[in-house]
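Look over this today:
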Amino acid sequence: MESTSDVAVDLAASEDVPTPALVLADRQTAGRGRGSNRWWSAPGALTCSLLIEPASWNIAAKQFSRLSLATAAAVRDVLESLAGDKTWQLKWPNDVMVGGRKICGVLVDVPNVKRQRVVLGVGLNVNNSCRGGPRELRDSATSLCDVTGRLYDMTRVIESLLEALDERLDQLGRDDRRLAATWQHSPASD
């Protein structure tokens, strides 16, 4: 698949597609990041996009700018549950880092459709060793298997991510101060 976010944006235009709707790929050939950045992925990466209707969590349009950080916080929750002995950091506005290297990128798209829908794109390096990735990424990116030396059950990772996302989106919709504290106290958020 070229890009899970592109597919999810296309699905957003169809009123018949129920939400939340998950678009998942084993590999992307044209994954996107912020601006003109591309997201490298290989088998073993978690590349997915979740089409949501923010109103389902009482999230108003004025809060959409926080969706990226809420999603990154959910990813960090999952990483902490899998390897809590590491320091997982949020780098504003859309990255999750460990040891100064990027392990996850988040991309939020707000399609121009009649019904207010948002696409939360996640590229998380799980079982795809970055040692085999493009040379320009080897010093700046990492994966969960590189950090811990073990492989992970991808079904468990995606299930955990969806549960954590639901919790973090609920916090955002309630304007829970603990969510903001999560962002503000992350060492890499500065």
About this structure: The two ends are 34 Å apart (CA to CA).
